[in-house]
Specification:
Blueprint: H1 3-12, H2 17-30, E1 38-43, E2 58-64, H3 67-76, E3 81-84, E4 97-103, H4 114-123, E5 125-136, H5 144-148, H6 157-166, E6 170-177, H7 182-191, H8 210-222, E7 232-238
Helix pairs in contact: 2-8
Amino acid sequence: MDADEYRRMAEVEATHWWYASVRALLQQLLADRLPAGGRFLDVGGGTGATGSWMAEHGDLIVADIEPIAVRSYRDRHTVAGVVNADVNQLPFADASFDAVMCITVLCHQAVPSPAHAVGELARILRPGGVLCLQEPGVRRLYRAHDRITHTARRFSRRDLADLVVGAGLELDRSTGAHSFLIPAAAAKTVLERGEAASDLDRNASGLRGSLGAVASAERRLLRRIDLPAGLSVHAIGRRP
């Protein structure tokens, strides 16, 4: 990912409506699955915008391939340790963690085989441990922000669920999210054809809070049902 994008993430992670929404959703999906005082890993955690909250539940280790990311994560958040590491070959022993979070990493050009990467994530889970994945959804919605973040692929809900099961994990949850953003993203896909630009430079308030309010309503719905698709897709697996 472009170095400038890490700078943008660090600057807006506490205030941008998107990161607030993603954090709230991940906490809703995962917090009850985290053992108190456990050992957790945030893989490809960037500057900590989406995963740093896990430190409230136990010892959080951060791994990212970019040194600028792990330095920013460490400087801004309380963590038990940071490691410069590649998801394709993680430097951790088998069965090392009670939970692993991996958010918008498998989509990157630097991950030639998502299946291999998820196998690495599953390998380091302890028995009963959980893996939480989030990736950009709807394969055809490739737009300017994807070019800035070096995104090579987007996923369907089924794609992500199949990766979890293929790694030998039991599928606990599979759902789409931020489905209300699909029409706008489809329009941007057409209008931004050939462009490369970050979404983080625009609309940090989420249309003066309206997008955050719709996301909150969607989260209430997700307490009861799974959505078939979304601008994001999620899968949670558990190691037997």
